[in-house]
Design brief:
Number of helices: 7
Structural class: mainly alpha
Radius of gyration: 23 Å
Strand order of the largest sheet: 1-2-3
Amino acid sequence: MKRPTSTPSVLGINRTTDASISLLRGNQPVFSIAKERLTRNKLTEGILLGNLGDSLLHLKRMDEAQQVLRQAIVICEESLPLATGAFRGSLACLLAQQDQFDEAQGMLNMGEPMVKPRADEHAKFLARKSQVQCLAGNAAGARESLAAARSIAEELHLTDGGEVAQTILASEDMLDAGSRQK
């Protein structure tokens, strides 16, 4: 049996200058996590939360969706602008459904430049933008955004049942329903 030494065996967490976290026993490192790994885990959390928010929105669980989408945006904002932009588009749809058109438009304005570099995400975003515009009573703007989304989807051959095509179909359905109500 080993005798206890005079060195304290206190376990603690020491945050170092490079933002890694080390677990120490006394003054001896026991375990360390690099900054990059912590960042990667946080980004994964942001993406998972955003996807959960999209699912909750689809299920019409608006309060939960709004809370989760806002969390995802905050987490992804600094390091993952593409995801931030996409989740802003989802949140804009939710806000428009709650007649919060000014905030929805703000989300669209901030989000679109973030998704533009990736054509498939931009097409989905434009389809969501079309939905917001339709709910706001801007049928001409909605048709224009939807046409742009369709054009990108056709160019990328994303017209057969995938996420982009489904988002475009939902926008078309919304526009058609709005036209029939008049």
